[in-house]
Amino acid sequence: MLAAVLITVVIAVSLPVTWVDPWMAESGPFEQGSVLCYILAVAVLLFTNARRLWPYAGGLALFALRELDMDKASFFTEGVFKARQYSGDHVSLIEKVLSLAILIVVLVIAFKCLQRGLPALLRGLRQLDAVSLLITTGLFLAVLAKSLDGLRRKLAPLGIEVSNLVSAKTGIIEETTELGLAAMMLAATVTVWQRERVASDYLN
Fold it and tell me: 3-class DSSP state for residue 150?
């Protein structure tokens, strides 16, 4: 799957920006594809074992909401993850409380995912387990996408000027790797579902 992502990145970067931009735009096909992958992954996990796998389903649901920029939606003055949302006088008390409640839910889900998933992930990597490899590859793509997000803004304080073309190309890579991340998560959940089904058939 990583090869497919890399091939897609190479093709997308090689094409003229004007051809690719409509596909990479907000609410464009690539973003919609990412959200669809996350929704399907959540559905697969809930169908597999809702009680045991709920933290991962919750985490993937948060990924989908983040892809839709819901943390910066218009009903939040600054954004759930912005310090000004909680310290600014221009944000109402009710909105601060609501934002804090959402932030706590996010932190609880993240903690549960790490508590339950990290030991299994490391164990799986040592055994070259398919699910662990898919998740790790997805996380690598997430780090890459995050590092490319707003590259011009990040490099400006260092005195490095990024051209419009380079900025556009890195944006294309970012959107493509985000779709790759979502696809990796979906593939991992489908693999888990297949294993659970095989185990259930065996026990029955």
Answer: coil
Query: What are the C-alpha distances in Å from 83 to residues 76, 77, 96?
Result: 12, 11, 11
Cα distance between residue 57 and residue 132, in whole Å: 16
Interatomic CA distance for residues 172 and 176, integer angstroms: 6
Highest mean pLDDT: which range of 13-27, 88-102, 131-145: 131-145
Rounded to whole angstroms, how far apart are CA atoms 70 and 31? 13
Return the H-helix or E-strand segment holding 198: helix 164-203
- In this structure, how many other beta carbons lie within 10 angstroms of the beta carbon of residue 125? 13
Tell me how far apart the alpha carbons of residues 194 and 112 are, in angstroms, rounded to a whole number: 23
Which residue has tokens 């008390």? Answer: 93
pTM as predicted = 0.85
Q: How many residues does the chain have?
A: 204
* pLDDT at position 159 over 90: no
Orientation angle between helical segments 164-203 and 17-24, nearest 10 degrees: 50
For residues 66 and 79, give the distance between their C-alpha atoms in angstroms, rounded to a whole number.
11
Cα distances (Å, whole numbers) of residue 15 to 23, 25, 58, 167: 12, 15, 36, 15
Q: What is the DSSP string of 20-79?
A: HHHHHSTTSHHHHHHHHHHHHHHHHHHHHHHHHHHHHHHHHHHHHHHHTTGGG-TTSSS-
* Cα 147 from Cα 193, distance rounded (Å): 32
Average pLDDT value for the chain: 85
Contact 145, 181 (CB under 8 A): yes
